[in-house]
Amino acid sequence: MDFSLGEELEAVRELARKIFTDRATPERLRTVETSATRVDQQLWDDLAAAGLLGVVLPEEAGGAGLGPAGLCLLLEEQGRCVAPVPLWSALVAAMAVSAHGSARQRAARLPSAVDGSARIALALEEFGPAGPDAPLTTATHGADGWRISGTKAAVPSPGGAGHVLLTAATGAGPRLFLVAADAAGLTWEEAETTSHDLSAHLGLDGAAAEALGDPGSGAVRGTLDLASVALAAVQLGVAQGALRHAAGHLAQREQFGRPLATFQAVRHQLADCYIDIEAMRMTLWQAVTALEDGEGATRAALVAKWWATEGGANVVHRVQHVHGGIGVDIDYPVHRHFLWGRQLATTLGGAGADLFRLGEELAHGGAAS
């Protein structure tokens, strides 16, 4: 299978890499980590000004139509630099609105997503044993439209979001809904994450909502598949950035008069990291191809997410280990890759949950939702 990139995608990757590298410096990251929002708004504005927030959306929405491939290139570059902007959640939400929203919903929400003036937060997780494809949050339809009640857990970076895209159960199965972030019946409880980003638990008590997509259209399943692939792309970048730190550190650090990089045990650790990263890369781009072709997308997305969850966590753990004591020093940048890797490895469920869902998919073929 050929995973080579076309000219347009290569240009997007180079532009994204330059912006993230220039902006996400260790000094800048330390400043953002102590800010009120934990989001680098200047970097977000730079991405919008460069047109990168819209590259994943269709041309009629003001984007470049690069879809999942463009999304994953952006997220991989973000992960390399652990740049603190809510890119994966905002872009997945915007792509879901583009794919499943009505003409009115697209016209109302996508222009601000492209220019960065308003984000759409993404609320897919809940407390308790329910998986993201079986929400306990409920939506009921009455004379005044849809009303939603329930709780969404750990909504990523809700600050600055004008609307929230969430899943809720209905009599016809789970569906996607849009809720205004300041709607009556909403309560937000701030929560800090492992990676120092701010999230929030969202309570809904009869909040007015707009439905996206028709029952049985596959909107929920498609959005979850896209979210899984997006997380895998960020984790791939995080792992690559961590390995880069390790290679630089071990080439310079000496023990017994020799660079640490020449010790066989250390080289085996880095070789294991490289193998995991290549497996993450291969399964990610297989999933991107499946999403774009529409065949076997759920299976491919779950495989990619499992590799990102398991392999990504292993890489950041090994990298921190080979750094020794400096690996846990918060003044040394590699600790951020470890924290991001651990946070991403639990988002939308850990490795065990991914394998369980994959087993169900292989056994039953999955049901459209």
From TrEMBL:
InterPro entries: Acyl-CoA_Oxase/DH_mid-dom_sf, AcylCo_DH-like_C, AcylCo_DH/oxidase_C, AcylCoA_DH/ox_N, AcylCoA_DH/ox_N_sf, AcylCoA_DH/oxidase_NM_dom_sf
UniProt entry keywords in alphabetical sequence: FAD, Flavoprotein, Oxidoreductase
Species assigned in the record: Streptomyces diacarni
Pfam families: Acyl-CoA_dh_1, Acyl-CoA_dh_N
Single GO MF annotation: flavin adenine dinucleotide binding
Family to which the UniProt record says this protein belongs: Belongs to the acyl-CoA dehydrogenase family.
SUPFAM superfamilies listed in its UniProt record: Acyl-CoA dehydrogenase C-terminal domain-like (SSF47203), Acyl-CoA dehydrogenase NM domain-like (SSF56645)
Residue stretches making up the Acyl-CoA dehydrogenase/oxidase C-terminal domain: 216-344
Annotated ranges, domain Acyl-CoA dehydrogenase/oxidase N-terminal: 7-116
The keyword Oxidoreductase is assigned to this record: yes
Cofactor annotation: FAD
Protein name (Swiss-Prot/TrEMBL): Acyl-CoA dehydrogenase
Lineage, opening ranks: Bacteria, Bacillati, Actinomycetota, Actinomycetes, Kitasatosporales
